[in-house]
Amino acid sequence: MNILILGSGGREHALAWKIAASPLTTKLYCAPGNAGIAQEAECVALDITDHAAVIAFCKTSKIDFVVVGPEGPLCAGIVDDLEAAGFKSFGPSKWAARLEGSKGFTKDLCKTNKIPTAAYERFKRAEPAKDYVRKHGAPIVVKADGLAAGKGVVVASTVTEAEAAIDMMFDGGLGTPAWEIVIEDCMVGEEASFFALCDGETAIPLASAQDHKRVGDGDTGPNTGGMGAYSPAPIMTQAMNQRVMDEIIFPTVRALKKAGAPFKGVLFAGLMITKDGPQLIEYNVRFGDPETQVIMLRLMSDLLPALIASRDGQLKNFDLRWYPDAALTVVMAAKGYPGSYTKGTVIEGLADAAQVEGVEIFHAGTRMDGDHIVANGGRVLNVCARGNSVAQAQQSAYAAVDKIKWPDGFCRRDIGWQAIARESK
Ligand code: AMP
Ligand code: GLY
Q: Which phi and psi (to 5°) does residue 154 adopt?
């Protein structure tokens, strides 16, 4: 089969690495890709927001299956457009992608279907929102509707802070003024990410993971797109995974089918594991980044048939096999990230680093400059490793990091610390 992956990050590199290894793959393309993905696939300089251009490429290159990485194109309806043009595609329709695109839609769906999540209210104007906050008190969580690249959430510890967040969101502090905000109770517990593959009718669990969002060691400093992750999340026991499937994932799949928007693709549930059990923080309608990088390392089975079964509505009797190992990834970012940073700095030692036992390096933001690999973004490399334990995976990942010569980059030195503390108990 000829396969096209859309996207250019570490997530897409991990997907390309796995799909390139499938015996079903004849030719693999990725648009636009990066320097690491180019080792697995032919990179194509396509503007993926231009659906007509993507469809034209699928025609000329006789693409049999398209795998969409990021949420932007999914929420813009690229799967609908590709399918209408006759190209089988992995991912949800525009209608089903509202699970990520609209917090209000998801919260209402949870309420109607008794899916556990924080109590909430939706607001279109600032004054009633502030009244609600004053009545409820803090801590309280203020969220802008719509895609905000992770910046649309304020966990306010005081009423004043919540009021300021409401004004900021309605006044356009996130770029464009929010047309609606959701205010919800603050949940207390441990966070985990859970991934399930859905085919419109049913779902199968993939794996769990935890990520480190803060830029600094000890989980300090500003939020980022993620500085590292590991899988599985120790808190996600077999019993907890089953509860998530029964209480959150299956009811969601059933509800969307009933609403006429069957969900196909990956459901990525951001969870709070509270003393009363798992609660949904939010849904994403795509693979996580950098969680996918560690999940792909743990997947023993061929990924491609599973993605095709998701598209074809054939997951009912599908089974995936996993390595029992843990996997961990350390993100290497350009100095200055998540603030301003320079691009184009040279990275060396990657081949050496990749020799470390159990290590796989996925590129998040790189490009070729002559014979050199250079940084081309904020998050630049995912140095991943598999091991018998999170501690062992961490040791291998940092052994590889130490072989990479990139004076303009940095990473956290404590990825996985919580899981390792738990392991050593
Ligand atoms: P989101 O973009 O919805 O994933 O939110 C970003 C982060 O804000 C989450 O990873 C949580 O750490 C936090 N958060 C969001 N909603 C809540 C909530 N209701 N209670 C506590 N923390 C939350
Ligand atoms: N790692 C979080 C995300 O992919 O949104």
A: -120, 120
* Longest distance between any two alpha carbons in the chain, whole Å: 62
Query: Whose Cα sits closest to atom 5 in ligand 2?
Result: 288
Candidate of 185, 186, 281, 282 to mutate for ligand 1, largest count of ligand atoms within 8 Å of Cβ: 281
- What order of strands is seen across the sheet that includes strand 140-144? 120-123, 181-185, 140-144, 153-156
Domains detected in the chain = 2-91 (3.40.50.20), 125-179 (3.30.1490.20), 190-312 (3.30.470.20), 326-424 (3.90.600.10)
**Ligand 2 atom nearest to CA at 290:** 1
The ligand 1 atom at the shortest distance from the C-alpha of residue 213 is 10
3-class secondary structure, 65: strand
Strand runs labelled E in 285-325: none
Pocket of ligand 1 (CB under 6 A): 118, 141, 150, 153, 155, 184, 186-187, 191, 270, 281-282
pLDDT at 148 over 70: no
Cα 295 to Cα 287: distance, rounded to the nearest angstrom: 10
pTM surpassing 0.90?
A: yes
Q: What are the tens digits of pLDDT across the range 263-277?
A: 999 999 999 999 999
In whole angstroms, how far apart are CA 261 and each of 90, 95, 111, 241?
Answer: 15, 6, 17, 25
CA atoms lying within 13 Å on the CB side of residue 418: 18
